[in-house]
TrEMBL record:
Pathway: Aromatic compound metabolism; phenylpropanoid biosynthesis. Its EC number is 1.2.1.44. The keyword Nucleotide-binding does not apply. InterPro entries: Epimerase_deHydtase, NAD(P)-bd_dom_sf, NAD(P)_dehydrat-like. This is cinnamoyl-CoA reductase. Residues 381-394 have a biased composition (Polar residues).
Amino acid sequence: MCPFKKDALVQQKGTYSVQSRHLRPVCAGSVPDLRPQVTLSNSSSHLRYTCVWTCGRSKSMPSGSDKVVCVTGAGGFIASWIVKILLEQGYTVRGTVRNPDDPKNSHLRELEGAKERLTLCRADLLNYQSLRQAIYGCDGVFHAASPMTNDPEQMVEPAVIGTKNVITAAAEAKVRRVVFTSSIGAVYMDPNRTPEKVVDETCWSDLDFCKNTKNWYCYGKMVAEKTAWDEAREKGVDLVVINPVLVLGPLLQPTVNASVRHILKYLTGSAKSYANSVQGYVHVKDVALAHILVYETPSASGRYICAESVLHRGDVVEILAKFFPEYPIPTKCSDETRPREKPYKFTNQKLKDLGLEFTPVKQCLYETVKSMQEKGHLPLPTQNDEPSYSNDHS
Ligand SMILES: NC(=O)c1ccc[n+]([C@@H]2O[C@H](COP(=O)([O-])OP(=O)(O)OC[C@H]3O[C@@H](n4cnc5c(N)ncnc54)[C@H](OP(=O)(O)O)[C@@H]3O)[C@@H](O)[C@H]2O)c1
């Protein structure tokens, strides 16, 4: 089919861009962004054309160009980083927040690209219509919103019903993929796991154990993730899940979230000792990158453990004390009667295989403290010698 309208005044030799709907490439039906370029030349009796298909996406064009995605709970610690990186990669983002006028969300409007490509939509996890409006017309959804509390009434229903609502709205909008932020809490809370067992994506927490120990946060996240998988299967939604351990790193939002508070208490003097327990740690930027990586990788599937290392609390306070000796960091364990708890084994190979390089936990701890100082959540040390992050703290 000739790409030019019959009456078009295309008599001159040269190269023309034409609309792709006028032509179909004979090959590469699955290659996105192919655009035809038509070159006209004279043959003896009439004008000829040859067509070259080029990929419209040049090397410098960011991966998210022309794509609209929704991020739920956009003002939160992790979601703010997801929004930031999505905007940097050229995506158009609809961020859901419960109150767009709340100053705690104002940092989002300052992000690079926000003026042109970020819309804040008012939505509550328990209000289906609000989520439906935010998600309609999107290519993908990053579902990060969730209560972060151990109060069963505030935790379980919004986490579970909210997730069901998001998957239903995503199915209705026929989005390409949903990335759900679950938690290691849905993976490793199992009293029957042996110390040799490597925690991987096949592991599920023991729901009765979560209930009996009143760990309502892990209970809520576990039921929410199960609900996400069930709903996605039933409604034909492509779902990928990220299971982060405790997330630390620089804050974009003006308030301190629950996981960063975990470190703050060791610096303010409010924690006089540290617990005899272990914890996984990961940098917030790596968590955000992991979400976008699994969204953009067509072959990504299932769950992805997002963890850099597992440390005893004693290791954490030791690292903090080396970087920031001016703060009243505890030196005593609250339970020295039991043997020191050993870190569990885990694998983060699935994310590494996708190309994610994890930030070392020491750098992560350092950046967390510096960020809390910069945001005014932690008084600056009084001594003159500023600590700095370098590899000799190993
Ligand atoms: N931080 C961690 O260590 C960690 C580790 C593993 C998994 N996760 C998961 O990662 C996600 C984000 O965590 P985060 O640390 O970034 O927490 P965060 O800073 O507290 O952010 C949570 C967000 O969820 C929103 N939200 C809560 N209830 C809502 C509701 N009923 N309707 C709409 N929005 C609601 C909050 O909005 P408001 O501002 O309006 O309250 C907030 O923006 C959560 O799903 C969490 O379970 C976090």
